[in-house]
What does this fold into?
Amino acid sequence: MAKKSLASNASTSSVEDKLRALYSLQIVDRRIDEIRSLRGELPLEVEDLEDEIAGLQLRLSKVQEDMNQAKTEVKGHKLMIKNCQEKIAKYEEQQKNVRNNREFDAIAKEIEFQELEIQLAEKHIREFEASLESKTVSLESVETKLSERSSHLEFKKNELDNIIAETQREEELLLAKSEKLSAVVGDDRLLSAYRRIRGKVRNGLAVVSIERGASAGSFFTIPPQRQMEIAQRKKITIDEHSGRILVDPLLAQEEEQKMAAELSSILG
It folds into this structure.
């Protein structure tokens, strides 16, 4: 059973105009929904790819930074080895001219210390070179993935841009028409209810006609007396089962035909 709601206090002369404007608004908004559905999940896919690429670029930058640091460490330790070797050569020359065992032993300790420094530096070099090998593999993996994702993003963006380019003019004209029809409705409370219903129902249809004695898309029959009241267009009626605003089939048919002609003219 349908129930009365919303603009029950509106004047009889204005209710039909509101219903017609509201149904026409639904026609336009329905077409806008269809255009946007053509894009499907593309905008979200593009956004997700952009986020993933940003993450990969950050990871790539970090790997490159680690590799540069490892190369710097290797270079530093090789320089240290060279310095140690020069010191050893110098100490060995000094050993040839020592005057006693104490001086010889002191120089021998210096040589031993430098040799230990060389061994430690070589150990660090091996570690950093192993790290470089690992980082190189990681770098290649990230670069490959980044290249794949960037290529995929370019494809998706082109696909989205093409769809937008094909429908942008129509969508802009329809949005302008939607605004004009909203102004024609001229009832903030009714428009608010319309938008709220659109946001709640699955297909976005807030205004529907009676079909085979029931609200379109519903199997709950509307009593004949209530159908007659709806056909009189003297008040706004909401179906208690579907939650949608109801109009009679004749009004719906007239507005569908009128809007088809108007939109055809507007869109060329």
